[in-house]
Amino acid sequence: MPWKNQGGGPWGSGPKGPWGNGPQPVGPRPPDLEDLLRRGQDRLQQIMPGGYFSGIGITLIVLLIVAFWLLSGFFRVQSEELGVVLRFGKHVRTVQPGLNYHLPYPIETVLLPKALRVSTISIGMTLIEDPARRGRSIRDVPEESLMLTGDENIVDVDFTVLWRIKPDGVGDFLFNIQNPEGTVKAVAESAMREVIGRSQIQPILTGARTQTESTVQDLMQKALDSYGAGILISQVQMQKVDPPAQVIDAFRDVQAAQADLVRVQNEAETYANQVVPQARGRAAQILQAAEGYKEQAVAEAKGQSARFLKVYDEYRKAPDVTRERIYLETMERVLGGADKLVYDGGPSGQGVVPYLPLNELTTKRPPAAGQQSSGGNR
């Protein structure tokens, strides 16, 4: 029994098989490649009436190839990159980020190093993946961080180096060094060991970090410039500076003792700065009082001597009168402030009662200003 191709076979109409509906089309079918090539040939024949191998056709094909070849020279430089254009392998120019053009390959090629990005290298420590913490943790690398100081002590130094490519040294960076990161790391470790080896441990641990960082940065830059590396060292940062872990407890005790020593010295200097000026002030006061007493005594002596000379001149002129006047003045000065009872000591004085309270007969006078009376009457 012959099959009829009108219904899709002996199992019914449509694309069915003996087990049912058969395969069904899923989604749009891909375009037929032969069909696309055939259509392209037809359009090309319409453009080139003489055929592919006619003069016009060959010219158009050559022009298209040349156009595509020339357009292949356009390239884009990203924001962190610089374009280094090589002409037959020789560096001819450097272009900035953006859309640029170079002569197509093989005349010119371009390299795109990340010259504007600041890179970081850590010495003495490394970051490792920590699955327990779901992140990264810092692991110490003692073979890089342990260094010998100038006073024969060992110090553990962890530091980082920030570096970038010089804008005018991209060619040197690409062609003069093979492993930039390894070179920077080796130079950084060497420079740090040199600076630490010339320094004492105490300044390194306390206040000389800034100076050490600056010195290491200068040494690194000089070494890299001598290599022609085209690298600029932006900054050196000392992260951790400690003694080795085996002696850190004892070292901290020594540091605490030195801190106590400095504190006691500062207290002593403070006390000395307080006492010494006071003592100097009292000494100056005593000296000034002595000078005043000296001037006073000398002036009084000079005055008395001048007065004596005046009196002596008057005495030579009238000895009796002067002697009488001196006697009266002396007696007035001696007896002027005393309580006196005058009685006749002759024969008429025998009638004085022996027990007469003579001290109570005198008029009592109030004490002078500035004087306090003692227990009895004067």
Automatic annotation (TrEMBL):
**What residue stretch is flagged as signal peptide?**
none
Quote the InterPro entries the UniProt record gives. Answer: Band7/mec-2_domain, Band_7, Band_7/SPFH_dom_sf, HflK, Membrane_HflK_N
The GO annotation for biological process reads: proteolysis
In the record, what terms sit under GO molecular function?
Answer: peptidase activity
Q: Which UniProt keywords apply?
A: Hydrolase, Membrane, Protease, Transmembrane, Transmembrane helix
Membrane topology for this entry?
Single-pass membrane protein
Q: Where in the cell is it found?
A: Membrane
Which positions fall inside the Band domain? 72-255
Compositionally biased spans, kind Gly residues = 1-20
Give TM segment ranges.
52-71
Q: Please, which domain of life does this record's source organism belong to?
A: Bacteria
The record's region (Disordered) falls at 1-32, 359-378
Q: Which Pfam families match?
A: Band_7 (PF01145), HflK_N (PF12221)
Q: Which family does it belong to?
A: Belongs to the band 7/mec-2 family. HflK subfamily.
What is the annotated role of this protein in its UniProt record? HflC and HflK could encode or regulate a protease.
Q: Describe the protein's quaternary organization and the partners it interacts with.
A: HflC and HflK may interact to form a multimeric complex.
Name of the featured protein: Protein HflK
Native species: Bradyrhizobium xenonodulans
